[in-house]
Amino acid sequence: MGKFLAILILVCALIGGGAMYYLQVYSYYDEIAASGPDDVQATLLTTGQPAPLPHSDFQAIDSDSSPIRYRACFRTDLTQDDLTATYQPYPGAVPLLAPKWFDCFDAREIGAALEEGRALAFMGTGNIRYGIDRIIAVMPDGRGFVWHQINRCGEVVFDGQPAPADCPPPPQGN
Q1: How far apart are CA 145 and CA 110, in angstroms?
Q2: Domain limits of the chain?
Q3: Residues 50-63: pLDDT tens digits?
Q4: pLDDT tens digit string along 7-55?
Q5: Strands 50-52, 41-43: pairing kind
Q6: Rounded to whole angstroms, what are the CA distances from 158 to 3, 8, 126, 129, 151?
Q7: N or C: which end of the chain has fewer CB within 10 A?
Q8: Are 138 and 74 in contact, with CB atoms under 8 Å apart?
Q9: How far are the Cα atoms of 42, 51, 75, 119 from residue 146, in angstroms, in the given order?
Q10: pTM attached to this predicted model
């Protein structure tokens, strides 16, 4: 009887582990269809407002389970000099890992390129949700990547502390 119970516990653990893996990596993500020029927006230096960034080959995934699960890939014909002259830079950009099946987004490659100065990061949309910025990074070959990153205000508020004086007030319930 003891062997049977041990095997039953092991089988349940394997099924539970497999189900958790599937839910985290596949089930919660939805692919987002390209909808037009507004799919990729970056904050202009001149106005401080997001505006469409010319792009093609847009692919994206998102999940309702977390505001930082958004990932996207695209291509642009703009050079890094054009981008730097037009859009607001984003210091401290750190790409987050994407599921392996979303193979156009390699956070390790993007992160290394940002650290080495080969890729440039720009503010997409600040506070797309409270405490979350949409970040854009572009490689020299025109490949672009988008992800959500917790900003300074979000880090403080999400840790249960009051918002710093220079941050917008958090929404009710945060």
Answers
A1: 8
A2: 30-158
A3: 999 999 999 999 98
A4: 888 888 888 887 777 666 666 788 999 999 999 999 999 999 999 999 9
A5: antiparallel
A6: 46, 40, 17, 13, 10
A7: N
A8: no
A9: 10, 15, 11, 12
A10: 0.84
